[in-house]
Specification:
249 residues, mainly alpha, two-stranded antiparallel sheet, 11 helices, 64% helix, FadR family transcriptional regulator, transcription, WH-like_DNA-bd_sf
Length: 249
């Protein structure tokens, strides 16, 4: 069971106090810091942590209940529920072939270009700092010859979080590492370039997205994300075509 002291530090400003508490608690639930069956801290502890009134806390808990994340048992407390099924049928296990990955990239182009626009408009200083940390991890991994899939996934998830719209976060979370082509396929190995050249281009594309979000330029962020995902799609299409053109051994 989690104690009130494990909650994130209170933010100084929220666009909406109740929504701010909802985002903080739901984020911790999604990260499994509160697991199904865990009891949330009492109202008084949440009030103290976030500096809000009892009315705000009760409104936030009502929203979490409506979202199927928690259940309140009167006289006992509020407990975390099992995550609700989304019914989208696009979990990571269903993304197997090159065609599957291309289809996911098409979905991401539609979704994440707008997510980048919103992130540049709504991001907090803390969120953009964490994006920078993920970008730094990707660069260090490249320099040390290590994989950077985990940091890549986190970078895109942080952009989704910065939209202040939980549905972007939930959809990317359901896909997991399937959003990164090289996590499902040996994308660098399918191409003509050296793997380091491939990853250097990918990192530069990420940096363009990051810089646009950092300077709060929604249009540039949208364009940079579209360029990145469209390039990923084209690189994969070209690699697939080369495989098809190879003579059978």
């Amino acid at each position: 069971m989690n104690s009130p002291t494990t909650l994130l530090p209170a933010r100084k400003k929220y666009r909406n106090l109740a929504q701010g508490v909802v985002e903080e608690l739901s984020s911790r639930i999604r990260r499994s810091e509160f697991s199904p069956g865990d009891k949330l801290p009492p109202e008084s502890a949440i009030m103290e942590t976030y500096g809000v009134s009892r009315t705000v806390v009760r409104e936030a808990i009502s929203q979490l209940q409506a979202g199927g994340l928690v259940q309140t048992r009167h006289g006992i407390g509020t407990f975390v529920l099992e995550p609700p099924a989304t019914g989208l049928g696009i979990g990571a296990d269903s993304v197997v072939t090159v065609r599957d990955v291309l289809a996911i990239l098409e979905l991401r182009i539609s979704m994440e270009t707008e997510a980048a626009w919103l992130a540049a408009s709504r991001r907090t200083d803390e969120q953009v700092a964490r994006m920078g940390e993920a970008l730094g991890e990707m660069q260090r991994a490249l320099e040390n010859g290590r994989t950077s899939v985990e940091a890549d996934v986190r970078f895109h998830q942080l952009i989704a979080e910065a939209t202040d719209n939980r549905y972007f976060v939930e959809l990317l979370g359901q896909l997991g590492s399937a959003i990164i082509p090289r996590a499902r396929l040996n994308t660098p190995g399918l191409g003509e370039d050296k793997p380091t050249d491939y990853l250097e281009r990918v990192n530069r594309e990420h940096e363009d997205i990051y810089k646009a979000i950092l300077r709060r330029d929604p249009e540039a962020a949208r364009a940079a994300m579209r360029t990145h995902l469209s390039n990923s799609r084209e690189r994969l299409r070209e690699a697939q075509q080369r495989l098809q053109d190879r003579p059978a051994s």
